Structure formats: structure tokens, C-alpha cells
Amino acid sequence: MAKVSLHLSRNNKFFFFFRKNNKLFFGCAFFITLALCLYLILIPYFSSKTVFPSPAKVGISSDSCIPFLHRIKYIGVAQHLPNKSWDWVEPTQVSKCAFHKFNRSDVSDLLNGSWIVVAGDSESRLTAISLLISVMESDGHERIRADLFKRHEDYAVTLKDIDMKMDFIWAPFADNFTKYLYQLRQNKTCPDFILVGAQIWEMLDVNNATKYGISLKVLGENVLALLRNCRRSPHFFWIGMPKLIMDLLTPGWSTKLGDDRRYLYENQLMGSKLLSENGGPFFKLDLHGLSDSCGYYCTGDGIHYDEAVYDSAVQIMFNALSIESNRKPR
Predict the structure, then answer these.
(1) Residue 50 pLDDT
(2) Beta bridge partners of residue 119, listed in sequence order
């Protein structure tokens, strides 16, 4: 039997090929196995890079729906109604982009467990009030308005039912907020949402557009330094300067806050690369465009506007977040 087996194997051509080329055979098998392993390891890696964008990347400014977010009309202005409302002006885009006004339940879902920091001057404070009103029961609205209207003070509130914390930081100058960012870095803490705006006081008290640009550059450097300590990038929003009605301002203010000076400061903001439209982290809430749409009869002092303006800004923020995360509220 052994002789028969040996005779059969020696007549097998494959057997002789294998014996003469066994090193070549094992070499090819090794490289094929290695290539297969690399394929199985690397293909999921590169696929994940495509499917799951980096959380630190803002990206919402490039979305085709973003340019339509600020196209808003205000209702009740001509009639001088005290409680004005608003809506988007282009129904086709509203339907296509699924824009809508977030109700209290929607906002609760969106901000559940979040830490929100709002910093700046009175425009930021009015934005903070609208944000809180959007998520609070109606019986707490007046208390929030009264508390947050305390002049030049920080304010903190926690909504226990959704585990949401908001800190309002009185920071009318860009340098004020830069110092706050440094404190966050020292404490190794990182908010989920950061809303900041600083321009009116810079124009009134400092009156130096070039220095403002330098302050914004330093602010941007500190934002980048903060991000190194964050496991997940915060959502950044820049609260723009409103339309100023010169006829309603005092003579001293109208001189310092005129359109020619505003353009100088706006150019510094654009050049700072802070805004997402210029590659930065901050999505701009365009209070100038919104307040201009509401107009003369929406302000009593030429600077601070009716609640509808700040409510629309907050709703724009919610919709921008929804676009960014592809998250649909219930």
C-alpha cells in the first residue's frame, strides 16, 4: 500500500511543482494574506472618515439651506402692535429645508443636558432671555426678564428638569471674553454652546477699529487653545450688532456708532477669520439684518429691539443646529 501511495504522489504534477517551488508558494500566500488583512483594516477606517465628519468641523455655513435662514419678515410692525411675530419669507425654501419654529418640547430635546455660555453686552443679554424663554414654562418668563435685566452683571441659571445650565457673562469688550476663555482653560472645562458678541462698547469706549481687530485675533487664538482641552467641540455662535437708528440715538452716540465706523469694525470681524463664512468656528446670528427687517417701529432707543427680533435669532440658531447635526425634533 505504501508503494502504491508513493507511486501515485510521484506521478502528480502538482506535487512536483510544489516540491520544487515551495518557497515561491509560501511567499505568494504570505503576501496575499497580508494584503487581505490590510484591506480589512484600512477600508473601514477610510469609509468612516467619509460617513462620519469630525465633530470639531463646523461646516454648516456651506449647506445650501443656510443662506435662507435669515430671510425673515416681521408681522404687526405697520400696525405698531406691541407683540410682533415673524416668519420666513420664502415658503418654498422653508418646506425644502424643513425650517420651523421649535416649540418648548423641541428645544428641551435639543438642549437637554447642555451647558450654555452667552457672553457680551445687552444684545447678548436679550438673546439669552429669548433662549431661556424658549425652553421655560411661561410662569418663569417675567422672573428671567427681571433677573437678566440687572445691569452689567453675570447671571447663572439651571433648569433641573432638562439638566441644562446657562451662564451669562457680562463681557462688552472682546478682551473680557478672552479672559473668560482663559479661565475655562485653567479649569479644564468646556461648554456645549458658546454665544458671544462684542462691538457696540468697543465703538463707544475704545473707538479704535485696528485695536478691535487685534483683540479679535487674540480671542480666536484662545478659542483654538480651548478646543485642545475639549473632548467635543462646542457649538459657536457670534451675536452680530443690530441696525442702529441714528434718529433715536443721543448725539454723542450717533457720531461714534455711524455706518461709516460700523463698516470699519465689521471689516475687522470679517478679517479675523472667526466667522464660519470665513473658515472660522462662529456661525453668525445676523442681528443687523434681522433688526433692519423689523425697522424703526421695533425699537424705542435705536439699539435694543422688540423681543420678536431676538426670538427669530434664537430660532435661526436652533435650525442651524438641526441642519448641522441632521437632527429632527419630535
Answers:
(1) 26
(2) 169, 196
Distance linking the first and last C-alpha atoms of the chain: 79
pLDDT band at 137 (very low <50, low <70, confident <90, very high): confident
- Residue 40, phi then psi, degrees to nearest 5: -65, -30
**In this predicted model, what pLDDT tens digit does every residue of 19-51 receive, in sequence order?**
555 555 555 555 566 555 444 444 333 333 322
What is the pLDDT at residue 28? 52
What is the SS3 string spanning the chain?
CHHHHHHHHHCCHHHHHHHHCHHHHHHHHHHHHHHHHHHHHHHHHHHHHHHCCCCCCCCHHHCCCHHHCCCEEEECCCCCCCCCEEEECCHHHHHHHCCCCCCHHHHHHHHCCCEEEEEECHHHHHHHHHHHHHHCCHHHHHHHHHHHCCCCCCEEEEECCCCEEEEEEECCCHHHHHHHHHHHHHHCCCCCEEEEECCHHHHHHHCCHHHHHHHHHHHHHHHHHHHCCCCCCCEEEEECCCCCCHHHCCHHHHHHCCHHHHHHHHHHHHHCCCEHHHCCCEEEECHHHHHHHHCHHHECCCCCECHHHHHHHHHHHHHHHHHHHCCCCC
| Residues sharing a CB contact under 8 Å with residue 264, sequence separation 6 or more, in sequence order | 209
**Average pLDDT of span 103-113:** 96
- CB-CB contact of 280 with 272 (8 Å): yes
Length of the chain: 330
Q: At residue 257, what are phi and psi to the nearest 5 degrees?
A: -110, 20
Q: Can you tell me which residue has the cell 470665513?
A: 278
Alpha carbon distance 202, 212 (integer Å): 7
Query: What percentage of the chain has pLDDT greater than the value 70?
Result: 79
Residues 287 and 241 sit within 8 Å (Cβ to Cβ):
yes
Q: Which whole number is the average pLDDT over 63-91?
A: 91
